[in-house]
Structure formats: structure tokens, C-alpha cells
Amino acid sequence: MEYLAFALVNGLLYGMLLFMLASGLTLIFSMMGVLNFAHGSFYMLGAYFAYQIGAMGSFWVALFVAPVLVGVIGMAVERYGLRVVHKHGHVAELLFTFGLAYLIEEVVLMVWGRQPMPYRVPEALNFPLFTLGEVSFSAYRGFMFLIALAIFVVLIVILRKTRLGMLVQAALSHPDVLWSLGHDVPRLFMLVFGGGVALAGLAGVIGGNFLITEPGMAHHVGTILFVIVVIGGLGSLAGAFIASVGIGILQTLMVAYDLRLADVLVPGLAESGYRGPFQEITTMTLANLGPVMPYLLLVVLMALRPRGLLGKRDH
Amino acid sequence: MNRNRLIAAAFAAALMPAAVAAQSVRVAHIDPFSGAFANVGALNGMHVEYGAALVNQSGGVLGGRQLEVIRFDNNANPQDAVVVLQEAIDQGIRIITQATNSGIALAVQEAIVRHNRRNPDDPVLYLNYGSADPSLTRDHCDYYSFRFEVHSGMKQLAIVDAIAANPEIDSVYIIGQDYSHGHEVSRYTRAYLAERRPDIEVVGDEFHPVGRVRDFTPYIARIQASGADAVITGNFGTDLSLLIRAANEGGLTSTIYTQYASTFGAPTAIGPDGIGRVIDTAHWTPDVWLTHNTEAGRQLVEDFERTYNAEIGSYQILVQMQMLGAAINAAGSDNPTQIAAALSGATFDAVTGPVMMRESDHQLLHPLFVSVFTDEGITNDSEGTGIGWRTLREIPASELSDDSTCQVSVPG
């Protein structure tokens, strides 16, 4: 029981971290029609900036400064890059972000090199918060959870309750009307892009020391992010939330339960030490199937419901 | 006329390096010098170059000729490695050195064995300074192939010995990456534990997907639940760092026995989380030369650092180059067959202790050091982390377990 609770909490935490990334990606897509390939790279930039600022100042300064820096870079990219490319259509924009992802990775390699960075969890949060059974839950995990939760709430409040949020929602469905009403839609685009990548940057700040800050980190989250926004339904925040948390919990649970595929299909088959045709498949553990699950879900969902869980548009 | 002159000029230019090369003995160093693993290639490159310089400084080979290293980029890819190997052979180079990744090493070794079978009068020598797949000298041992670092199985035996010597350990948990390397580590561990300490219970033996696990907490929870005294892993890279980080965070108190915690980048990635918790087995750590207190070792470490502004990482590469130089001189020839004959069974006084090239399978036996990751009682730290490796146990080459099961066949 404790074990299950622990796996659920960790899965939820991982899901929340994924949501911080996916929310920005799905907002940018629904508004501008651009699938931002460089989203994971901004997450990486957040982690490297936080390491650098943390090395000079403190983690707490980095927590605020790094996402702002990433957001500013994002806005500059939108203003001087995407907006220029925009008139050549979505394919050009897609290719632009694709190139940008590689550009950021190369710059990171040039500046920081290929070695992992010694970016650490701050000492103040490096203690066990509580212990379930024999495994302890660190204070930093609790802190990450709070941050992710706060971001989720703030995002909902901004989108639902503020004027800016209403404009963003209006721009999602009827940008032309908004434009003709005299609103500065390009500026709105710039803000959303900057805000979206700043969220990715923040995820990098709190995830970079929890995981490992190295040049491969953008790539690691990149693919799973696309799976999440597509499963959730492109452009749907609620869908992205369900998909993030669902995939986070699913992956953790599959690792947590040491079951063999055979036991799930035919109870007792693996226990009996079955050897024969297809033994490679029957002895496969659920933990090893974990990484495949998001992609399996993606493929099945695309076949059954191409617009995703809560997507509004069929493309 | 004009065109002819141009061709003549081009011809002369093409011949020039060949004329210079006739003076030197050329060694082709095939490694990833570009792309994702360029840093590994660059680091190995320094060692190969420095090893050649050591030979050249002490008089070169065959009465004053120089060892010349020529680099070939394999893009960390087996196919590319075989292509550049052919290029090196076409340029007349008959000594090849290559390591990093065992998949590439197997491909290169196979291509060289094929070349040597087809050209028995013009063979190529293969020097492997680190690819750790046991099968390279176990199932595929070859007269012209030499490995200068112990394979993962031999290393695992040294680890099991260290565990067996600790009476406080009653149970172990094996966790590894789900591919040949992880499985070999598990196999060797189980076999030798059964022999050395049959009372130790293996309470867990599992494999996780390679490079895909972000959060090792569930695995740590299982290790906690098993009550294992020690964890054994062959993991490297992020799979190792994340495992240790999760162990620290989850409050796991078991010691973690590793193979790759002291390799390039790992001490930085592990950091303080690993203090007192990680015990690694390797051929070299920044403090190893101190335990032997040799002047030669000190000079070597300081000079390398002065030259490249980097720490010695793969000391076995230097051993390899020095043994190559000595073998060429002993053979009195740069003919690969004669060099191979001189290398087989050769001994060398390394700064870590005497080493010996096993005749049966051309696997070098060298000292191994079991050391704990700590910030106390060390002189030199790793990668500027303030944390280093304190030697707990030294295994001289003569005491390495003799697991040789292969016998090279002498050509002719």
C-alpha cells in the first residue's frame, strides 16, 4: 500500500514536471500553429542558466532569473525569427524551430562542453521530508511539486480571469476578429511564445538538478513532449494536463511493479519457468515495456481518435 | 603543358608525406573525433599522442625512428569505422588502435581478421585500449589483436573479490542496463559469488532499459525492500549518475559497487551524492600513483597536466603505446607479425605496477584498484569536484583471476 502511494506520488510529480513543458508547447501550437521543435532546448537552456547563476549567486536567484532570461530569448526568437519566417507558411516555421533546436544544442556544447554540469539541489532542500516504508521522499521533490502546482493554478487564473487571458483565448479561435478589433495580435504571439518557453525554462531550473544537466537533456524530453501534446489533443491545456500526469504515473507504476508480461497475460506462466517458443516475449518485464507505453498510446489513440483526448480540431 | 605541370605538382605533394612517413612508424588512431562522442575521441587522442611522445622522447623506435599517430574519424559508428580502417590500410598503415565502444571494436576486429586471412603476407595489428566486451578476447581472440585493459568480466571478478572479503555483506542486489554489457556483469557476478562466497544471497537481479529511465526511485524502493547490503551495477553515463542520485535521495544505505564511476565526467555528474556510498574498480584514479610513490608516476601526471591541461584518464593507453614501442624495438622490425610475437607475453613496469600481456588470448593483465569515492584522505580530487578516490584494495596483475578460455593460433 505504501509502495503504491509512493509510486503514485512520484508519478504525479514527474507528470507535473512534464506538464510545465507541455503547457507552453500546446499553447504556442494552438495559437500560432507552430509545433515548436526547440521547446526541449529552452528547457535545457533553463537548466544551464540556473547552473551558471547558481554557481555565481544562489539557486533562489536562479529560480527567478533563469526563466526570465529564457523567456526574453524566446520573445526575441519570435520577434526576429518566427515572425519573419511566418509569411512563408507553417512548414518554414517548423523547419525554423527544427534548426533552432540544433543551434541551441551546438551553442550549449560550445559554451559548457559535453560533460554533465555539477548543478545540485540546494542544501536547504536536501533532506528527507518524510519516509514511507523504507524509502524517503526528499524535500526537494516536495518543493518541485509545489512549484508545478503553483504554475498550474497561476496559468488557469491568468487564462480564465485576466484580460490578457481572455485575449489569448480569443486569439486561439478567432485571431482575425481580434486583429480587426484593434488588438496587437503579433505582440500577443510574442508574449505567448516567450511565456511558453519561460515555463520550459522554469521546468529546466527545477528539473536540471533533480535529473542531470547535460547536452542530451533536450532530446530526452523532446520526444515525450510531442507525444503528450498529441495525446492530450493539440492546443488543449486540460488535455495536456491529463496526458502528462497519466503518462507520468503510468511509467512510474510500470517500473514499480516487477511483473512479467506473461503473468499479466496468463497468470502463473512466468513463475512456472516456461521455456519455449516466444520465451523472449513472455519473460519481458513490465518495467522494460514502460518506455514504449507512451508511443503505443499515441499510435492507438491516433487510429481511434485522431484529434487527441480533448482536442477540438481535426487536421 | 600547364596541365601536366599541375599534375606533376599534385603528384609531388601527394608523395611528400609518404616520403616523410617512410622515416616514421605510423599508427592509425580510429575514434570518434566529431559528433556526439567527440569529447571521448579528443580525450583518448591526447593519451595516444602523449604515449607516442613518451616513446619518441626516449629514443623512438628502431634506432631513432618516430612513432607517428594519424587520426581517423569513425563518427562513433561501426560502418564508418570499417571504412576508415580500409582507408588507413590503403595508406599503408599496418598498426591500428581503436576502442571506446565495443560494437565498433567487434566490427574493426572482424574486418582486420578478414584482411589478415586474405593477406597473410601483409597483416594488420589491432591494439584495443579499452573496449570492455569480454568476447573480444574470449570468443574472438586473435593473434593480431591485443587488449590493454581488462574486460568487464575480469573487472567484475575483482569487485566480487572485494565484496567477498567484506564479512558484513550477506546479500547483494544486481541492477544493470538491459543489453550485453549489463547481462555479462550479472553473469560474472553470480558465477563468482557462488564460488567465493556461496553464503551471500543475490536478492535481486534486474535489468532496466538503457538510457530511458529518468527516475530510478522505484528501483531504489525495490532495493530497499530487498534489504541488500550491497548494490552491484555495470551502469555508466546518466544511467549511473541517476541511479546514485536516486539512491542518495531515497535514503538507501547500501554501498554501490561500480565499474564506471571514475570514468570521464562521472565524478562530476555523481558529485557529493556519492561520497562514501560508491566503491569503484578501475585501473587508474588521480591518487593511484601516490600509493606507489614513484617519481616516474609523479612526473607523468604533472607533465600530462601541463601539456594538455587535463587529468590522465586512460592510463592504459600510455601503457599500450610504451609497450608497442618496446615491442617494435625488441622485434627489430615494424612488421606486424614480428611485433605481435614480441608483444605476446611481454611485460612492462607501469607506474601502477608490473603488467603482463597474456600469451593465450592477448589480454593484458594489469593492477586494479578498488577505491571509495570520498572527500577525506585524498590528495588529488577528480575533475575539480573536491572529491576523489581513496584506494581500499589493490589487486596486482599477478592476482587477477585467470579466466582465459581462448587460445590464439600462431599464423604460418
Task: Characterise this structure.
The complex is a heterodimer of chains A (315) and B (412). With 315 residues, chain A is mainly α. Chain A is built from 14 helices and 2 strands. Chain A has a two-stranded antiparallel sheet. In chain A, strand 1 and strand 2 (135-138) form a beta hairpin. In chain A, helix 2 (39-56) runs parallel beside helix 4 (90-112). With 412 residues, chain B is of the alpha/beta class. Helices cover 43% and strands 19% of the residues of chain B. In chain B, the strands form 3 sheets. Chain B has a 7-stranded mixed β-sheet, sandwiched between helices. In chain B, strands 2-1-3-4-5 form a 5-stranded parallel β-sheet, with helices on both faces. In chain B, helix 2 (38-57) crosses helix 13 (315-331) and helix 13 crosses helix 14 (336-343). The longest helix of chain B is centred in the N-terminal third of the chain and has 20 residues, at 2-21. Mean pLDDT of chain B is 89; it is low at 12-21. Chains A and B meet through helix 1, strand 2 and helix 10 of A and strand 7, helix 8 and helix 9 of B.
Return residue spans of chain B where pLDDT drops below 50 for at least 5 consecutive residues: 12-21
What is the CATH topology assignment of the largest domain in chain B? Rossmann fold
Number of strands of chain A: 2
Q: What is the topology, as strand order, of the major beta sheet of chain B?
A: 7-6-8-9-10-14-15
Give the number of helices of chain A.
Answer: 14
Strand segment tally of chain B: 15
Largest interface: A-B, 35 and 34 residues
SS summary, helix count of chain B:
14
Full CATH superfamily name of the largest domain in chain B: Response regulator
The shape of chain B is globular
Give the CA-CA distance, first to last residue of chain A. Answer: 44 Å
- Report the structural category of chain A: mainly alpha
What is the multimeric organization of the chains shown? heterodimer
Average of per-residue pLDDT values of chain B:
89
Q: What is the alpha-carbon Rg of chain B in Å?
A: 22 Å
Largest sheet of chain B: 7 strands, mixed
Q: Nearest-angstrom radius of gyration of chain A?
A: 21 Å
- Please bin the fraction of helical residues of chain B: 40-55%
